[in-house]
Fold Glucose 1-dehydrogenase.
Amino acid sequence: MSHAHRFNGKVAFVTGAASGIGRATAIAFAAEGARVAILDRSEAALRDTAEAVRTAGGEVLAIACDVSKPELVEAAVARTVERFGRLDIAFNNAGVENKVAPVAEIGLDEWDRILDINLRGTFVCMKHELAQMVRQGGGVVVNTSSGAGVRGVAGGAAYAASKHAIIGLTKSAALDYARSNIRVNAILPGNIETPMMDRFTGGDLQKAIDLEPVGRLGRPEEIADAVLWMSADLGAFVTGASISVDGGWSL
């Protein structure tokens, strides 16, 4: 069955959209009929994604936004609603990796940096997205956690802590808004071929491949496929779920 137009008339809001999973997901939403607001820390970084969204047939709004700053997030949601009239789907994907270090060697500045962007940023986005969805009578939120949200990672305590917390935040929000026609779920990617993975491995992607039971890295488009399923009517009875798309890494 074709799903080519399943997001016609819908508005999607995608953070961390300049590259990797966010970019692939924004393009996928556009290809299936959505109008898309794309966010990242600089508008210049979004130019390639914006052009790709247009090429896929979508109308796009590019917004420079640091998701850890509430006033910028609130303004971004307002701009999206002003431009497109509503907000149907929010994919809270912005995040950063930590510098590898055991717990006792993690600086407080580094800890705060990771939690501010990965966890606080997700909360701040949800706060304003959900308020808009309540006003309009429904919507869907998908948060990016990680396989590191359900297992420990040596040298990655700050990142793992932020991604574990996103799962708890997701479950709680799903209960808060279950009777408001709003679904809230989390996607848990494994080792995906993205610029973040390249930075984390120092360019030695074989390290990550060796951790994958399936023997390869995932592609950003494979995560996008799962996000779109969770955002569409096919996932209408799914809320509060944490869905792993990781090649078996977290088993």
Notes: The first strand starts at residue 11 and ends at 15.
